[in-house]
Design a protein that fits this description.
- The chain is α/β, with parallel strands linked by helices and 365 residues long.
- It has helices spanning 12-23, 51-57, 63-67, 97-110, 224-228, 232-238, 282-301, 307-336, 340-352, 354-362; strands at 2-8, 28-31, 45-46, 70-79, 82-94, 114-116, 121-125, 130-134, 137-146, 167-175, 182-188, 191-197, 209-217, 242-243, 248-250, 261-262, 265-267.
- The strands form two sheets. Strands 3, 4, 5, 10, 11, 12, 13, 14 and 15 form a nine-stranded mixed β-sheet that branches. Strands 1, 2, 6, 7, 8, 9, 16 and 17 form an eight-stranded mixed β-sheet that branches.
- Bound molecules: flavin-adenine dinucleotide.
- Residues 8-14, 31-34, 41-45, 120-121, 147-149, 152-154, 169, 213, 215, 250, 253, 269-271, 277, 280-284, 286 line the site of flavin-adenine dinucleotide (FAD).
Length: 365
């Protein structure tokens, strides 16, 4: 069977493209290598900008995931012995990837998307139409969205300079009695660790769970407990924690220039670009770019534009909407790697000028 659209990758980017196109009558197949539900390395901070979009993508059966999610109205940055408080306004939501990815997958299937798990895509042939070779055979489609994430066999390996030191992502859930509704970012030389309260499953039935998610240089730490030791306040806080999930990890983490389209294939989410995790915008970017890719393909399925025109529209709209996010977050990344003597006066300025902090945060959205 030839589909209108093949989507590779069942994370937030792939599921949103699939839902948008299927709701508009396209015949869509969503191919996922893994199996849901599963934990994923992620701070699970879903920024407010995409909450309405997320609510609109979910079927009513999963509406509670959104309505009962813990809200995060504040942030605290622990750096160089200081604590910089900030308001998160409007508040973000904390949603576990165990629940989020499963809910989006179910929602796609209920919109008539043909969901196929445990199928690995090996190669994509053509520039439209497409022939896709997988672990279970071949699929054909008129259009293709690659939402296979940051580091997949389908994406060209990013340029890694000789001086590159490997970075890891580490994550686990822990029991902490009555955690504050705040996203706490503990920065140290060679990385940072974010901590925030989170629920899984029926949130009403439990509380007192936090997600700890670190991005660290491999020569600094290779496990979460090692990362906790790098920051005195975090070390103190984590002393009482009991693990509630098996730890998960990912590597390497490499940043590169965004590439939203290649050879007629629309790239969405991390497959197009990986935004610094500490700005808490990766899930939003995945939902928004995945939906945008779907929106740009709808006129092609209706026969009013060609595939190259749809791809060109996506590239232009992607650049306009998301380029500022990448520019600002890479500036903040550079600031964080400045020597402490330069960083401290900048921090003092941010501490005494909340409007400046708010402005910086708004530029990462
Ligand atoms: C340390 C760390 C902390 C983070 N914290 C946050 C945070 O707090 N908030 C936030 O918004 N973002 C955060 N992010 C970023 C966020 O996790 C990603 O941006 C988001 O998961 C991107 O979604 P996606 O759908 O593009 O990709 P993914 O969620 O990675 O989904 C891609 C899917 O494609 C599948 N796949 C890959 N290759 C193939 C193939 N060949 N065939 C079939 N399927 C395939 C994979 O199995 C996967 O399920 C963090 C990232 C890291 C590393």
């Amino acid at each position: 069977m030839t589909y209108d659209l093949i989507v590779v990758g069942g994370g937030p980017a792939g599921a949103s493209s699939a839902i948008i196109c299927a709701r508009n009558g396209a015949r869509v197949v969503l191919l996922e290598r893994g199996r849901f539900p599963r934990h994923k390395v992620c701070g699970e901070f879903v920024s407010a900008e995409s909450l309405d979009l997320l609510a609109g993508l979910l079927v009513p059966q999963h509406a509670r995931l959104f309505s009962e999610a813990i809200r995060i109205p504040r942030a605290r940055v622990f750096l160089d012995g200081r604590m910089l408080p900030a308001t998160v306004d409007p508040p973000a939501a904390s949603i576990s990837r165990l629940d989020l990815d499963q809910a989006l997958w179910d929602s796609a299937e209920q919109c008539n998307v043909k969901g196929r798990q445990q199928i690995a895509v090996h190669s994509i042939l053509g520039t439209g139409p497409f022939l896709v070779k997988t672990s279970v055979g071949e699929f054909e489609s008129r259009a293709l969205v690659n939402a296979s994430g940051r580091w997949s066999n389908l994406n060209a390996a990013p340029h890694v300079p000789n001086s590159y030191v490997k970075w890891l992502g580490l994550k686990g859930h822990f029991a902490e009695p009555s955690p504050l509704a705040s996203v706490d970012l503990y920065f140290f030389d060679g990385g940072y660790c974010g901590v925030q309260p989170v629920n899984i499953g029926d949130g009403a039935a439990q509380s007192g769970r936090v997600n700890a998610c670190a991005m660290v240089r491999a020569d600094v730490a290779s496990t979460l407990p090692e990362a906790f030791l790098r920051h005195p306040e975090l070390q103190e806080r984590s002393r009482q924690w009991k693990p509630l999930s098996d730890p998960v990890s990912t590597s390497p983490l490499v940043f590169r220039e965004p590439q939203p389209e290649r050879d007629g294939v629309l790239l969405a989410g991390d497959a197009a670009a990986f935004v610094d995790p500490f700005v808490g915008y990766g899930i939003s970017l995945a939902l928004r770019s995945g939906s945008l890719a779907g929106e740009c393909l709808i006129p092609f399925f209706a026969g009013s534009i060609s595939l190259p025109e749809a791809a060109c529209n996506y590239r232009r709209r992607y650049g306009r909407r998301f380029s500022p996010v990448f520019r600002t977050s890479s500036k903040i990344r550079r600031m964080l790697s400045l020597p402490q003597t330069v960083r401290i006066p900048i921090l003092r300025l941010l501490e005494t000028t909340p409007a400046l902090t708010r402005y910086l945060v708004s530029k990462t959205r």
